[in-house]
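In response to the reviewer comment on reproducibility (Comment 2.3), we provide here a single inverse folding case reported in full, input and output, so that an independent group could reproduce the run without further information from us. The structure tokens appear first.
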């Protein structure tokens, strides 16, 4: 029991037609399903925001979506409202084999702080509990797939590598937002942290 597949945020709002759609987001679902049985554990993450989350542009007067403000924990992109708890947008893509999951980690539910990473909120100190789960299962090797490469996959992969896990990102089973060069920056950052990009 050493290998886990971490499936990041394959949710309706990140797929075409969603509030924060990632181009081609739905194209990775079949490929993710096909490799789930190759791993000792499968973990799904789910963005799970309350209404009026502080990372929503709509929560700040005169703020445009995709603008950046400074929060107590650092710079924060202001997003369109997305993945609001209990809405269809927050649900996993209908074709994703959620029944194969050993664990579902919900993140971003604290209204005061965003949470890109599967391991830590954006203050980089508040844990989600995923590390403890993986350690107690004896899991050392992580393969990450999902949405979006340059944000939640990137932050999760770098945090996992910094925690001492062996991390691979399957780029063919991810899709990116690529906002102002964010994909190239994310790829460089992941490689610098020791993440294998395949």
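Designed residues, in position order:
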């Amino acid at each position: 029991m050493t290998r886990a597949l971490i499936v990041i945020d394959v949710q309706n709002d990140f797929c075409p037609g969603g509030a924060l759609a990632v181009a081609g987001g739905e194209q990775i679902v079949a490929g993710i399903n096909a490799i789930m049985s190759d791993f000792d554990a499968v973990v799904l993450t789910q963005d799970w925001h309350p209404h009026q989350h502080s990372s929503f542009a709509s929560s700040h007067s005169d703020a445009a979506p995709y603008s950046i403000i400074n929060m107590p924990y650092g710079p924060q992109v202001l997003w369109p409202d997305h993945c609001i708890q209990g809405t269809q947008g927050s649900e996993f893509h209908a074709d994703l084999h959620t029944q194969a999951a050993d664990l579902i980690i919900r993140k971003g539910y604290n209204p005061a702080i965003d949470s890109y990473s599967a391991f830590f909120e954006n203050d980089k100190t508040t844990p989600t509990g995923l590390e403890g789960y993986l350690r107690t299962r004896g899991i050392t090797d992580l393969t990450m797939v999902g949405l979006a490469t340059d944000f939640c996959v990137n932050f999760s992969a770098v945090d996992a590598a910094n925690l001492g896990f062996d991390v691979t990102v399957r780029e063919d089973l991810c899709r990116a937002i690529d906002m102002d060069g964010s994909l190239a920056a994310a790829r460089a950052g992941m490689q610098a942290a020791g993440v294998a990009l395949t």
